[in-house]
């Protein structure tokens, strides 16, 4: 039987477009020391480490060994997990597995990226099949744009609907001093006036490229309560990967991997009506249209109802289910850390440490990861033990 | 330190060529395209779905497929994007020429979607649901892109990522469109004798 596990600490860098003052492992060190400080532990308390980032991004592929002086992995069990965009949730879920197994009591999960050190799109293109997909594939932006084109055709959603999501994310980011886009609010008109990168996606419809790192500490039942006054208990996790080939994902239907992952996690955590049952959600929404379509996959509203749900303010701070109080992926995107930031921010909300971005009286929080060939991870955290 | 004093290291302009096996069914696909300017898909014995390009395993069913299905070179746009920003193409080391249209096309008779380029970059002239037709390179040109089974029996892709460039692009053949969401795959077409002929 798996042990109960909680998050007891989280740390992150102040995310920027280019951190010339640190190399990758020095940047990792900043996030790790902040996570340890958050729960008043030292590195000696950590039993094992899971670390991840994007393959190919910095042209450093043995990250687990290369980074030990920054991660704290000298003479400790450490492994690298990398799954594209979901890397951050994969390291979190792997750290959870470590503790739940009973083999380790306190495990550190790390995600990081220095997007400034390579051509992000060129590096992402290498995730596509070299013979069949790579000739036409052009990275995340047009790939997501194709999904948007099919969604608009099916439900009549408009660029302005999507712009509401972009403005919400950026507005929320103004409460988060760690966010890359902190101090840079935008309006609907700014979004509509920004240049089209890949029809129908405009510059302000898509996430930025960020240098940053995140670290989250998991602990076992019996240990967690002694360290943290309010641990964020893992209620459920789920991982669903669908296909190898981009063309096997049918863009005319909902995001199947997220539907399946969330349904499994909801059943395990006893979530009946997600829009009512969750106090807050930190969702991996890499572009604005995802904020319309993927909340349908999560069951916040019905198919095609995303635009109305967002325009009605249900996902704003103070709404029925505030989405991304941190500002989300569209305000900070250090890719290997991006999904781990969703977990960290959801835990911060449960632990009540959100300061200006805190949602009042959080009981249960949802975190998601997205990546690769349209796959999804889900983690549910709560104040109560599962 | 000022940002002007913070140094970066850079890599030289380096090339790392790779070779990728396309497998038996991939080799058949390119051979059919070269000889007959048509596509070939493969049907799963469990779920019955026809997938193109053909591959050995149906992922959802986790079973081997071997029933090749000849498909026409026409289809329908399921989704698209007009790529408008420059980026470094890892296949060539050069910037990919823009604008170009990245298209998801349902080949007639296939259940999944084929990704390629559509030769229309005006957002007012392209729409989900439009019918398209593949435009192939001349067969002699194709030979330059993909090497086939050699005396050793080893399939060798000499064109690396240029392989699907044997299709120049897809062109829109009718701007009228029916509701693509209601369109079902057109079902079984001419079936070939399977892959065993190619296993010699």
Percent of residues in helices of chain A:
25-40%
Oligomer: heterodimer
CATH architecture of the largest domain in chain A: 3-Layer(aba) Sandwich
Tally of contiguous helical segments of chain B:
2
- Outline of chain A: globular
- Share of β-strand residues of chain A: 15-25%
Structural class of chain A: alpha/beta
- Strand portion of chain B, in percent? 25-35%
Any overview of this molecule?
The complex is a heterodimer of chains A (about 375) and B (about 200). By secondary structure, chain A is α/β, with parallel strands linked by helices. Chain A folds into two domains: about 5-120 and about 210-225, Thiolase/Chalcone synthase (Peroxisomal Thiolase, Chain A, domain 1); about 130-205 and about 235-380, 3-Layer(aba) Sandwich (Peroxisomal Thiolase, Chain A, domain 1), CATH 3.40.47.10. Chain A contains 14 helices and eleven strands. In chain A, helix 4 (about 85-100) crosses helix 14. In chain B, strand 1 and strand 2 (about 50) form a beta hairpin. Chain B has one domain (about 20-180). In chain B, strands 8-7-6-9-10 form a five-stranded antiparallel β-sheet, with no helix packed on it. A three-stranded antiparallel β-sheet of chain B has the order 2-1-5. In chain B, about 10% of the residues lie in helices and about 25% in strands. Chains A and B meet through helix 5, helix 6 and strand 5 of A and strand 6, strand 7 and strand 8 of B.
